[in-house]
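Please check the following.

. . .
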Amino acid sequence: MVSTIGGFVGLGAMLGFVLGSMAYRRLLQIGRSLLSIPAPDRVAGVFGMLLGLIFAYLVAFPIFRLIPAVKSYLSIPIFFFLASVFCYIGVVLGMSLKQELYDFLAGRRGESKEVKEPPSVRPKLLDTNVIIDGRIAEIAKTGFLEGELLVPQFVLEELRTIADSSDPLKRTRGRRGLEMLNKMRNDPSIKISVYDLYGPEFRERKEEVDTRLIRLAKKLDAVLVTNDYHLYQVATFQGVKVLNINELAQAVRPIVLPGETLTIAIVREGSEPGQGVGYLEDGTMVVVEGGRNHIGQQVEVTVTGLYQTVAGKMVFAELKKGAKVAKDARLGHHSGGGERKKAR
């Protein structure tokens, strides 16, 4: 008999522990769900429930006073029914007036009823090439890139690997990329951070950096910033928003029109006989007919046409008739540095 009672007690204890644990976890889930609800919704819901309970009591009280039988037998079910109905009505009414109610309780009655939340800005995910390129630092400093700049941990590791390379060229590129990151981090106007919360699925898989960048951009709903043409094409095809700084550079280049006069330094010969090649300040190539004999000199040329390529624009020009030729143009003109003049 005693053993039977002990067995029931043990079974009851086990069931109580299991059911108590389930109830505790459920209460925690409910608590987290309530915390995720916006403050105006919570205030409106609680206020509506309290108002419903008050009305339920005001309706039930005269019923219980006038009908004694109801008070003795059906008081609890009737009050529960009335409380449920009036609480539901109170919550619905409270939610319909949640912003006005929240403003009233917060003491903001004089403010505008329309509260506009700031638009969400998608983070910008930087790839290795755009960091090494260096122009991203100046672009971010101007404020054209909104939101936070994210550097994935695997991109940082790739930069470190390149910086430790035995190849002098790769080592220089890697160190330049690390210097650019430090420059942006030390600039208070640029919000940049290293992102390493992408989970083990990005670490365990042996994938290329570009593939992981695309997958991470999809996961974070981020904008990928690059100057790699092939990464731009692949990411765009997979539905990832991409900002190509080469396209930005093309868009902000000054427009050169046929008939304009430029002062250009001829730095080398062209691919066709008699041609010379110079460059504008933004790096645009200028092919000058008859410029081969003026290599190392600064000449005035007239623009004859433009040609758009994948890499950018090419300007074709010819020597301006009667123009003066400045010798020793190599001094202080490492890239041409074309000066524009309006055609008359």
Remarks:
- The radius of gyration is 36 Å.
- Residues 29-105 form one domain.
